[in-house]
Amino acid sequence: MPVPCLPSNMGKFLFLMMAVDLDLGNYERFLDLTLTRENNITTGKIYQSVLEKERRGDYLGKTVQVVPHITDAIKNRIESVATIPVDGQEGPADVCVIELGGTVGDIESMPFIEALRQLSFSVGPDNFCLIHVSLVPVLGVVGEQKTKPTQHSVRELRALGLTPHLLACRSAQPILDNTKEKLSQFCHVPAGNILNIHDVPNIWHVPLLLRNQNAHHSILKQLDLLRIAAAPDLRDWTNMAATHDNITNSVKIAMVGKYVGLTDSYLSVVKALLHACIACSLKPSIDWIAATDLEDESSKSTPEAHATAWETLRKASCVLVPGGFGDRGVKGMILAAKYARENKVPYFGICLGMQISVIEFARNVLGWEKANSTEFDDGTPNPVVIFMPEGSKTHMGSTMRLGSRRTLFQTADCITSRVYHNSQYVDERHRHRYEVNPEFIGTFEEAGLKFVGKDETGNRMEILELPSHPFYVGVQFHPEFKSRPRRPSPVFLGFILAATGQLDLYLEKQQNGS
Fold first, then answer.
1. Which CATH number does the domain housing residue 96 bear?
2. Tens-digit pLDDT profile for residues 258-296
3. Of the candidates 240, 259, 278, which is a domain's last residue?
4. Any long-range contacts for 397-400 (C-beta under 8 Å, 24+ apart)?
5. Contact present, 173 and 138 (Cβ < 8 Å)
């Protein structure tokens, strides 16, 4: 139940997500916020905190129950996180936006719904606005917009003690007036508070769609904030949405990964590519290639898929290998990296993709045929990628190198430093367990593979480049997490510029200050 669109010039506001998945990144991208791990509240976090209190004796031997102990923990977490600024300003936010994921009636969300019911009572009606998101489907044969799913979910929600102030109705086509009237009558929500989020040409139209329905006015009225709020200024969004609609040219990007059957696995990467392409007046044309289809074994087991995968790779203007875990598809990724290196096709490796380029270079340039990562082969004679020293091989939870960390450029004469506006360092977010073995760095650099970015200790390799290549870049961090619609990730932008032959001109203009 999210509050979808608050005007950015009304004051500071905070996003707090409960039992949420990809939406956390969507809010960061749309509103250019930097959220923390505390902004994501999960059932595991809540139960863990309650169990820890019980073990410490905080409950003085009382029986620990869902109500009040779990619900109190949820409310306390909401209230504490609401004071953490996420927009670079000081002080608590004016509005805390809470999204409760899942479906009304799910057993997993029951404690959270009860906690919100209690919270709505404690903060008062003028400080609580509930928006219920529901689907208005259309039966293919009849063609009628059906309101029963929304009626039933609202009835279930009201039975749990929460009455929605607004309805956000998803549909393929704009909902009809008689449909809105029926929803208003049976859900006890004013027709003016029934918002329709129908399918649009691109996602950037959604804020405009909500603005045109005065969603901000309804929310601010419920929260008694109309007197201090200004009208939303969405001129940039209007231009951005129109620009996207009018772009006709595209760039072919080969995405070689393990999880291409579920493309949402790479949603942040896809969005970062979109941001970079729009900045270049292009639309991304992503060709998904299952890494296993490139492997030699697939030529025998699935010859058609093997041939199609290689044909797709050869037609692409650039190759991107994103992150991942485990050894499935690694051979195919190595072949893709080799193809890009030998044929001067722009290559961008992220996290695992960087490690893949190191393994490929070790095998095919240095001649270490059995070079590998210890993640895939513990007994490799050339462990060019190793487990991080501070990690644990027995506990998978909380052992990754996470969060924003600083990378220092070792030279200004490299593509990555230049696309980052000749900065001496860059702060990017990490999410990995393995890294390039520092013992082999000298050998790699003598052979031409340069590690142009390292951490502050100089022992962790963060960025690699191949100077003899137009664009062959690998990064251990995840730049896609900080990419924004109007502020694309510099390294993603450089990748797209290289794929379209515009990188040199861009760097030249940047150097000249034009």
1. 3.40.50.300
2. 988 888 889 999 999 999 999 999 999 999 999 999 999
3. 240
4. 399/433, 400/430, 400/431, 400/432, 400/433
5. yes
**What is the tens place of the pLDDT at every residue in 59-96?**
998 999 999 999 999 999 998 888 887 777 777 778 88
Q: What is the percentage of the chain residues whose pLDDT exceeds 90?
A: 68
Please name the amino acid found at residue 285: S
**What does the pLDDT look like over 142-162, one tens digit per residue?**
789 999 999 999 999 999 999
Whether residue 97 is contained in a domain is answered as yes
209 vs 216: CA distance, rounded Å:
11
Closest by Cα among 195, 207, 273, 287 to 239: 207
Nearest-angstrom CA–CA distance, 399 and 292: 28
Q: 137: which 2 tokens?
A: 């489907």
Q: Which residues fall within 8 angstroms of residue 52, CB to CB, at 6 or more apart?
A: none
Q: Of 165, 244, 306, 478, which residue is the catalytic one? A: 478
Q: Answer whether 321's CB lies under 8 Å from 359's CB.
A: no
Average pLDDT over residues 9-33: 66
Q: Respond yes or no: is residue 480 known to be catalytic.
A: yes
Which spans in 188-257 are helix H?
206-212, 215-222, 235-246
Question: pTM for the full model?
Answer: 0.88
Give the contacts of 379 (CB within 8 A, at least 6 positions apart): none
Whether residue 3 is contained in a domain is answered as: no
**Contact present, 166 and 157 (Cβ < 8 Å):** no
- Domain hosting residue 53, numbered range: 13-240
Catalytic residue among 129, 187, 351, 414: 351
Which tokens in the block code for residue 90? 């000081």
Say if residue 325's pLDDT is above 90.
Answer: no
Of the candidates 240, 271, 298, which is a domain's last residue?
A: 240
Does residue 196 carry a pLDDT above 90?
yes
pLDDT of residue 392: 55
Summarize the confidence of residues 477-482 as an average pLDDT.
94
Question: Which residues, 6 or more positions from 146, have their beta carbon under 8 angstroms from its beta carbon?
Answer: 136, 137, 138, 139
pLDDT tens digit sequence for 393-404? 555 555 678 888
Q: Are 447 and 322 in contact (CB under 8 A)?
A: no
Active site (annotated) includes residue 351: yes
- For residue 421, the 8-state DSSP code is T
Q: Which letter, b or e, does each residue of 206-229 get, where b requires 16 or more Cβ atoms within 10 Å of its Cβ? A: bbbbbbebebbbbbbbbbebeeeb
Q: If you ran DSSP here, which 8-state letter would residue 487 be given?
A: B
User: Does the active-site annotation cover 478?
Assistant: yes
Candidates 428, 435, 465, 480; catalytic one: 480
Q: Are 13 and 97 in contact (CB under 8 A)?
A: yes
Confidence of residue 27 (pLDDT cuts 50, 70, 90): confident
Whether residue 305 sits in one domain with residue 208: no
